[in-house]
Amino acid sequence: MDRIRINGGRQLKGEIRISGAKNAALPLMVAAMLSDKPLVLKNVPRLADISTMIQLLQQHGVEVSAAPGENGHSRGTTLTLKTAKITSTTAPYDIVRKMRASVLVLGPLLAREGRAKVSLPGGCAIGARPVDLHIAGLKAMGAEIDIDGGYMEARAPKGLKGARFTFPKVSVGATENLMMAASLAKGTTVLDNAAREPEITDLAECLMAMGVPISGVGTETLTIEGVESFREATHSVVPDRIEAGTYAMAVAMMAGDVELLGGRLELIESVAGVLRSAGVTFEPTERGFRVHRTNGALHGVDVMTEPYPGFPTDLQAQMMALMTRAEGASMITETIFESRFMHVPELARMGANVTIHHESALVRGVPKLRGAEVMATDLRASVSLAIAGLAAEGQTTLHRVYHLDRGFERLEEKLAACGADIERLKG
Ligand code: UD1
C-alpha cells in the first residue's frame, strides 16, 4: 500500500491548479443514465472514486470513454457517457460499499426503468449515514421500496409522478437523487428545504443543458419539470471548493503565498471569512485567487459545520489541523456527521492538544507539532494529517493513502511544486 512521506517546515510559494469537484462529477456522471443521448463532461478529476463510478455505470450499461482535457490532463479528463440501454438495474454491494455516492443511481434507474435494486451503503468511518431521505422522497413520487437482504428493492410500474416533497433535514445526496428522478417523472416536482451546495447547482445546470426545465437553482426550493426525452449536452465540472479550501489551509499553516488557479473564492466565502479572522489574506486574481499569510501569527477561531453556505463538514478536519498551531484556542463543532473526529487521535500523536466533548472539539494551539507515523481513517481526515505533517518538525509518514486518493488529485505533486518536501512511497 502506498504511503506519503513529508518532511515538515517548508514554506509554500507558487501556484496550484484546482481540479474539477469530485462531489459534483459523481452525480453528473450518474445523470447520464437518464438519457439515451451522449453527455460530455469536461474537467473531470482523475480520482479513485471517479474510476469506481465508471465501473458502476458500465455494469448498468453506460458506455464511457475518457480523453485528456484541453492542455492535457492538467485540465482534467473529458468523459463521454452514453446510455443507449440500461442492461442491469442492480447496483451490487461490492461497488456500493466502496463509495456511498453509488446510491445516486437509485432515482435514475427507477425513473427510466421502473425498477431498481441498490445495495444499502452500510456504515462508514464517519457515522451511520442513513438513506431514509432518499427513500421517503422517491416514495412521495410514487415508488414502492422494500429493504430485503441488504438491498433497497424499488418499483414504480407506472413510472414516477411529480410531487411536492419537503426534506426534514438538508441532504446533498437525497436532493441530487430526487432532482434526477424528477427529470424523468410525469409532471412537476417541487423540492423544499433542498440542499444548496454548489455541486447541486452544477447538477441543475447540467440537467438544464440536457433539456430539463428547473427553477429556483441556488435556493432551497427547486422546481423541476419532468421531460420525456433529453438533448445531447456538454458540461464542465465546477472547480473543487473543498480542494481549494484544503490548499488555502495548507498555505495558512506554512505562512505561504500561493495562487489557486481556477479556484472560485465565492464558493468558499464562509471558509475565507473564518480564515481571515485567523489572520489569512485572500485576494481574487484573474486566474482564481491568491491566499497568503506572510506575516503575523495565526489566531484561534471557532467554527461550526453547517449545510452550504455555512462552513463545510468536508473542511472540518483540515481546519482542526490548522488550529493545532494557532495562538489561543479554537472550538470546532461538527453538526453534520457524528463520529467525524477520527483524525483527533492521529493529530494527538503529532503533539496536538485537542479535547472532544460531544460534537465539539476544543483545540488549544501548541508551539510545535512533531512528525510521526499516522494512519488515514477517511478521505478528509487523511488530508488533515498531511497538513499537520507540513508543519511538523521532522518526518511524517501517512499510511492508508488510498483514502486520500479517493478525493485529492496528485496532492503530493501539487504541494511539492510549491516547495513542500513530500513524496509518495510506492507499495
Ligand atoms: C455529501 C458529500 C460529502 C459531504 C456531505 C455533507 C458527495 C459524494 N458527498 O454526502 O462529501 O460530507 O454531502 O456536505 O457529494 N442523512 C439522513 N438521511 C438520508 C441522507 C442523509 O439522515 O437519507 C443525514 C446524514 O447522515 C448527515 C446529513 O443528513 O447527517 C447530511 O448528509 P448528506 O448531505 O446526505 O451527505 P451525502 O450526500 O452522503
Classify the helix fraction into a percent range. Answer: 25-40%
Query: What portion of the residues fall into strands of 2 or more residues?
Result: 25-35%
Ligands, deduplicated = uridine-diphosphate-N-acetylglucosamine
Q: Mean pLDDT, rounded to whole units?
A: 95
Number of strands: 24
Structural class: alpha/beta
SS summary, helix count: 14
Rg over alpha carbons: 21 Å
Strand order of the largest sheet: 22-23-1-24
From the spread of the alpha carbons, the general shape counts as: globular
Main beta sheet strand tally, sense and closure: 4 strands, mixed
Return residue spans where pLDDT drops below 50 for at least 5 consecutive residues: none
State the end-to-end CA separation: 5 Å
List descriptors.
24 strands; binds uridine-diphosphate-N-acetylglucosamine; globular; alpha/beta; four-stranded mixed beta sheet; 14 helices
Task: Write structural notes for this entry.
It contains 14 helices and 24 strands. It is an alpha/beta fold and 427 residues long. The strands form 6 sheets. The chain has a 4-stranded mixed β-sheet. Strands 2-15-17-16 form a 4-stranded mixed β-sheet, covered by helices on one side. The N and C termini lie close together (5 Å). The longest helix is centred in the N-terminal third of the chain and has 13 residues, at 48-60. The chain has helices at 22-31, 48-60, 93-96, 106-113, 132-140, 172-183, 198-209, 241-253, 269-278, 316-323, 343-349, 379-391, 402-405, 411-416, and strands at residues 3-7, 13-17, 39-44, 63-68, 77-82, 90-91, 115-119, 144-148, 151-155, 164-166, 188-192, 214-215, 222-225, 233-236, 257-261, 281-285, 288-292, 303-304, 329-333, 353-357, 360-364, 373-375, 395-399, 421-425. A hairpin with an 8-residue loop joins strand 4 (63-68) and strand 5.
